[in-house]
Amino acid sequence: MPRSEALGRGMRLTGLAADIRNEWRAGNRSRLAQLLVVALVVIAIATFVGSIMTGAADASLANVWRWLIGEADQALSIRDRIIILDIRLPRAVLGMLVGASLAVSGVVMQGLFRNPLADPGLVGVSSGASLGAVLLIVLGTAAFGPLFALFGFYALPVAAFFGGLVTTLLLYRIATRGGQTSIATLLLAGIALGALTGAVTGVLVFMADDKQLRDLTFWGLGSLAGANWTKILASAPIILLSLAVTPFLARGLNAITLGEAAAFHMGIPVQRLKNVAIVSVAAATGASVAVSGGIGFVGIVVPHLLRLVIGPDHRYLLPASALLGGTLLILADMIARTIVSPAELPIGIVTAFIGAPFFLWILLRGRSNMGL
Amino acid sequence: MINVSNLSVRLGGRPVIHGVSLEARPGALTAIVGPNGCGKTTTLKAISGELAPAGGTIRINGRDLRGLKPWELASMRGVLPQSTVISFPFTVREVVRLGLAAGANADAALHDRIAAEALEAVDLGGFAGRFYQELSGGEQQRVQLARVLCQISEPVTDGQPRYLLLDEPVSSLDIRHQLGIMQLARSFCERGGGVVAVMHDLNLTAMFADHMVMMKAGKVRASGAPAEVLTDETMEAVFGCRMRVGVAPPAPVPFVLPQTASL
Predict the structure, then answer these.
(1) Is A53 a member of any domain?
(2) Of A25, A43, A75, A365, which residue is most buried, by most CB within 10 angstroms?
(3) Closest CA to B81 of B173, B164, B191
């Protein structure tokens, strides 16, 4: 019975792959996109489970399962339980959340600025979010006492959110005139803002005392290595909330690709769309930066790959990016923690090694279409 | 009916439209002409709701523009901008479908047909699968028109006329497509809708417009039927060069008029 079930599932998956191939040949991208989203759900789940089962230490998922359903000897499974439930599982969950949030922030920002090169990491929004977080760590309870009192362990993501929000608003003000965004101005202003926030961050690090320095270093490692359930609790509500509003932005983001004026002509309340988009990008980026530091290039690579296959329709691009972003970040994390095992590479190094050449490839391939 | 009364518009604090009044009736093609920078496009942008007037009122079918939500406006009028750059790899089909999503075409079953008909209407029948970015400027302009025709696919709905606001709809087209698009606009009017078009080509305007509004320096200098507006005197007063209306050049100089075309 289980065997035939598995066989049936296998056949359904092959059927899905064949369907995707057929729609690709027929050039019907919206049907293709729907199928791809389904396929990505399957792949994301498989990757998630796979990452829980692999690692430097041996741990048996079966033992943990037996413990969960109350069949196993408590003493026998305690080591496996800790490795899987307290180390690998939070790490996979955080990877999925952060990856989805980075990719979706990329999509929304690219849609808003009408350009495939706009990415929170690239144009300084992440550095702004970092500055927010560093400000909080260094000036701490003295300056931000009420923030701690109000938000508890949400204080760090909230501070990063405000850092990201201010940067995004500034960028928008600088790069957009009369509804037209200059991508050259956007990227250059992003460099300037990134440098400025970096400098301020440097000053703060300089001012920090020993304990704060340790906090900063720990936080700034920029990896999923420190994943734990507290971090997930602190970031998940913000990330999930900002992901949840994006489907409502899809039609507006589609329309705005023709320009802000054209979007208005097509009945989109443009100002409201921009406000919601900017706040959701800042929130998702802020929460991700707060729990995992700066992880680059996910927001640019994932949407770009998907646009090549299913086109730029945001109704499909948004969910597909969330799924693929989460999947790829978990995979990158698996590489990061196994390639030099038992030591670990920071995941930012892995994503940069994959992402930076990819970014150059996008540039060389599509220069003429990007308004550069 | 679109009613513009005593409209004034400021751009960056500078007044550019001073007390413009005009009417665009359903069933008629209204053309706005005038020299560069005279405020034609600005007037059209005010009518579309894109620019807020500094003074005066604009009414569409009796309703004040200021009281209308973006989505209400989108079901009453479609707007063709001068040119549209897209930096994402949309196919022609996908661009046209953006118009469908914007319009009041509730019946999704009709969407494929409306999109196909709109592309046929602008002579881009086999282009649905092509990438927008790979088309020529004139073809892109016609794709955009097809998108607008998807948004406003019926000239009259619920007994109310709909409008097309076209900013230089034929500026980058060859002569055959210029005539085709103008005929398309004309037939939209004949079926009960209204068209307001910013035009540069005076011959095409004379051929197709029912009503002409000639502007200069942010004001209306003449309006009426093309035969009343296109006179030697107004031409000189508005465009600043002396020329003769309705006079053929001396014999050896070749000239081609769109009026002689047969499609």
Answers:
(1) no
(2) A43
(3) B164
DSSP-assigned states of every residue in A142-180:
HHHHHHHHHHGGGHHHHHHHHHHHHHHHHHHHHHEETTE
Q: How many CA atoms lie within 13 A of B104 on its CB side?
A: 17
Q: Which residues contact B212 (CB under 8 A, 6 or more apart)?
A: B30, B31, B33, B205, B222, B223, B224, B225, B226, B229, B230
* Complex-level ipTM: 0.92
* A261 close contact with B: CB closer than 8 A: yes
Decide if A269 touches B, using CB distance below 8 A: yes
Is the CB of B94 less than 8 angstroms away from the CB of A262?
Answer: no
- For residue B101, what is the enclosing H or E element? helix B92-102
- Residue-range domains of chain B with CATH: 2-260 (3.40.50.300)
pTM (predicted TM-score): 0.86
Among chain B residues, CA nearest to A111: B88
In tens, the pLDDT along A2-53 reads: 455 555 555 566 677 777 777 666 667 888 899 999 999 999 999 999 988 8
Residue A298 domain flag: yes
- Could you list the residue range(s) of the whole structural domain that residue A324 is in? 100-370
Residue A357 forms part of a structural domain: yes
Within 8 A of A312 by CB-CB distance, chain B residues are 88-90, 94
Of B73, B81, B88, the CB nearest to A267: B73
Q: DSSP state, A113?
A: T
Of B143, B138, B123, B218, give the one whose Cα is nearest residue B174.
B138
Q: Is A270 close to B85, i.e. CB distance below 8 A?
A: no
Tally of domains in chain A = 1
How many Å lie between the alpha carbon of A242 and the closest alpha carbon of chain B? 24
List the CATH number of the domain containing A138.
1.10.3470.10
CA distance B75 to chain A (A): 8
